[in-house]
């Protein structure tokens, strides 16, 4: 039996460099996937168990609408896999503008807060669920020039740990993965001279996300899991 058979997974950022791997991995293990991004279409994943759910998740209202739509369509939400996020850097803290801070908090923290807050009532009512978020190595090991990015990802870690503690009475787990630099087309384009062999393979991140979404790792909650590849 597939690991995620009869499970419904809501995956944000489902169309990105990591999102494609995660979405394909969940579908391969039997899950029904509601894939979310601003421009996602049904044709992006030609699979009978894939449903495209375009949304920008910039407000709590949009997240609530999305969760309600998924729950109405599939009668449950077993897993939230929050891949949505972004990077902005290149300036020291004293040179960083308010707009950069706002963008990093919106993309890396607020979207996760809105989405988790929207799905948790459904998970609590059904008596179980899995929340998996993608953080960053920067949350644990910040580097110069990326202060607001690291801070937003560190705040995401705290949010996930809090949700794990608050929902353990309803068999809801919450975990966060902290990958190092991932081998995606966007990262290769931005760092053409890097040693790609040392980077984290998105397929391995996807495999771990599948395992955490399954019942086989139901007792793993409140975990902050590093995935650093060969750059340990």
Structure report:
- With 232 residues, the chain is an alpha/beta fold.
- It has a single domain, classed as 3-Layer(aba) Sandwich (Rossmann fold).
- The chain contains six helices and seven strands.
- It has a seven-stranded parallel β-sheet, with helices on both faces.
- Strand 1, helix 1 and strand 2 form a beta-alpha-beta unit.
- The longest helix is centred in the middle third of the chain and has 29 residues.
- It is globular, with a radius of gyration of 17 Å.
- It starts with 7 loop residues before the first strand and ends in a 5-residue tail after the last strand.
- The mean pLDDT is 95.
- Strand line-up of the largest beta sheet: 3-2-1-4-5-6-7
Count of distinct strands: 7
Q: Which CATH class is shown?
A: Alpha Beta
> Taking Cα atoms only, what radius of gyration do you get, to the nearest Å?
17 Å
Q: What is the distance, rounded to the nearest whole angstrom, between the alpha carbons of the first and last residues?
A: 35 Å
Q: Which stretches are poorly predicted, pLDDT < 50 over at least 5 residues?
A: none
**Residue-averaged pLDDT:** 95
The H/E string reads: EHEEHEHEHEHHE
Helicity level: 25-40%
What's the CATH architecture name? Answer: 3-Layer(aba) Sandwich
Strand content: 15-25%
The number of domains is 1
CATH superfamily: NAD(P)-binding Rossmann-like Domain
